[in-house]
């Protein structure tokens, strides 16, 4: 079966995105097909892309250079110096990629990093980030962020909020939605028919019977017991400090964590360069490298493409798993 190529959005033009696209093409040109969606003026000096008019041309173009589907921006770019004039272009590229994947011209979206301040300054971008904007474009109320590598998959139930707000934000409804979306995503996009999920407690030692907090006793245990009665394979609430050694990781397919650092510290410790950001709950596949725009090294040829390569490979595998459903 011939699948459409993956759409790789340009992200912030002043960051390392274009460099990553070329390095990923060099690594993957004989393995999978993708195209970069952005303004050709923003490509590195001396680049030799292959301009295409439609995503269907990308597979054949891969043998000759990075396939580029042009999207006009308001201004050229200077590495390391984001220009608010280009904010609307960045936003429009994301929307165009969603349209391409929803109409079947692309099989998945891989997004290169954006700079949220530049988008807010230049276009009054109203979303906290990529993920929320993609959910709005798709008409989805709730999505889940998963960080994944060959070593570990983690899902933070609460994400970019202060630590002192986590206990209030981590409601039974939020945790249940997170578990259900993760379970469904592992089934549909990772070919895991009966996902095993480990759920971390909020408090040290998972509350230690109420001695270190009652969230586990009052909210988490009743919820997990109810979901187990429905057939979910759930372990927990577990003490987070014993969940991530090799023997523990072998017992689950993904870990549901209470807050951002509880999830991201272990995966970034285990596999810093190859972690991939996956959005579960969208009606299409979206992956992204797990890093930012790196303005300090933009234009210097120093960007490490490992996470972008891993994100494109994971998107391709997820497409295959979804096709097999």
Description:
The chain has a twelve-stranded mixed sheet with strand order 3-4-2-1-5-12-11-6-7-10-8-9, with helices on both faces. α8 (215-230) links the parallel β8 and β9. 38% of the residues lie in helices and 16% in strands. It is globular, with a radius of gyration of 20 Å. α1 packs across α11 (306-324) and α3 packs across α4 (116-123). The mean pLDDT is 95. It has helices at residues 17-28, 58-61, 87-102, 116-123, 130-138, 166-169, 172-190, 215-230, 246-249, 260-270, 306-324, and strands at 6-9, 34-38, 50-52, 67-70, 108-111, 144-148, 153-156, 196-200, 233-238, 254-257, 276-280, 286-289. It folds into two domains: 1-145 and 272-325, Isopropylmalate Dehydrogenase; 151-270, Isopropylmalate Dehydrogenase, CATH 3.40.718. It is α/β, with parallel strands linked by helices. It has eleven helices and twelve strands. Catalyzes the NAD(P)-dependent oxidation of 4-(phosphooxy)-L-threonine (HTP) into 2-amino-3-oxo-4-(phosphooxy)butyric acid which spontaneously decarboxylates to form 3-amino-2-oxopropyl phosphate (AHAP). Its cofactor is Zn(2+); Mg(2+); Co(2+). Pfam families: PdxA (PF04166). This is 4-hydroxythreonine-4-phosphate dehydrogenase. Homodimer.
